[in-house]
Amino acid sequence: MSKSRLAASALPFIAAALAACGSPAETPKPQQPPAPAQPPAPAALTRDAVESAAFETAPAPVEGQPARPDPATARAQILLDRANFSPGVIDGLGGDNTRQAIAAFEKAAGLPQDGVLDAEVFRRLTAGDDGRVLTDYTITAADLSGPFIGQVPANLADMAKLKTVGYATPLEMLAEKFHMTEGLLQALNPGVDFAKAGQTIVVAAVAQTDLAAEVAHIVVDKAERSVRVYDAADKLLAFYPATIGSSARPAPSGEVTVVGVAPEPNYTYDPDRVSYDRGDRKVIVPPGPNNPVGSVWIDLSRDTYGIHGTPDPSKVGKTFSSGCVRLTNWDAEQLASKVKPGVRVTFR
């Protein structure tokens, strides 16, 4: 989704508003090792295997070996994503985020809610959407125009020296564009040079579609680590996995409202306004998808709290934040495109 499509309202105070969401629990990605030290690419996963996958229990991981993407799980995750029951990042591996997305889908479909990808869930998913789950994409010169920063600085002071906190590599950019992990993208495209324009690759057939209606109510479930989005008729529009607060700095309780939306926000660390230690100087980090708050900020009426994106989608729902609600960049952008000031946000 183009950031210009976001229903943004001007937030001149946005830098200060972001100060609460950069605790050590949201430390930016560590510096990446040189290319020779990178782990080997995952085993290849064929297009036919994913497209023709029928339900079967995913094989148990082999001890001492990296988990291998499962075709049926990858297919189900893409279908869940397209139905706005987000599994977070699509990896073909499953896990808690996928389990919660399945449970939300089961509830909407009137099925028993156990979060298990069983034969009936798989049947309902594929009956509701029998389209192909993978598609071809040709890498363009625009895709490779960057800027790509090669590595994301580990500390805010170094990050603040950049013009933008861009993607590290074309591989990272393309994986996020299609809601995938880099590992799954590589598995579907063994041996591909993702920095070569004109090359056609296989990607998840996801589309950053608009929600079906304007958002009237957002429910943040702290125990489940999820966000549910409803329209004015209390109809579920979307489900997202989320990282929500921590024991040291829990998310608020009760009801707040949306104040506004800031696409491509900067991030400010101000030691006069926060209690955790990331230095004794005020630092302003420029915008970019690897900014500590990702590609969009939804400001809430509780000072310094918001709903925002993340530089590391694979960690959504699996780590802690400093009170804010963190979604994948694409989920946060989809939500931001349909929220307006005054929308109710209930924390429970």
Automatic annotation (TrEMBL):
| One Pfam family cited in the UniProt record for this chain | YkuD
Q: Name one GO molecular function term.
A: transferase activity
Q: Kindly give the InterPro entries that the UniProt entry links to this protein.
A: LD-transpeptidase, LD_TPept_cat_dom, Peptidoglycan-bd-like, PGBD-like_sf, PGBDSf, Transpep_catalytic_dom
Q: Which SUPFAM superfamilies match?
A: L,D-transpeptidase catalytic domain-like (SSF141523), PGBD-like (SSF47090)
An example of a Gene Ontology cellular component annotation for this protein is: extracellular region
Q: Does the keyword Lyase apply?
A: no
Q: Which residues form the active site?
A: H308, C324
* Compositionally biased region (Pro residues): 30-42
According to the entry, every stretch annotated as the L,D-TPase catalytic domain falls at 216-348
Which PANTHER family does the UniProt entry name for this protein? BLR4375 PROTEIN, L,D-TRANSPEPTIDASE
Top-rank taxon, per record:
Bacteria
A biological process from GO:
cell wall organization
Q: Where is this region: Disordered?
A: 23-49
Organismal lineage = Bacteria, Pseudomonadati, Pseudomonadota, Alphaproteobacteria, Caulobacterales
Instruction: Give the signal peptide, or none.
Output: 1-19
Q: Which organism is it from?
A: Brevundimonas naejangsanensis
**Family affiliation:** Belongs to the YkuD family.
Q: What is this protein called?
A: L,D-TPase catalytic domain-containing protein
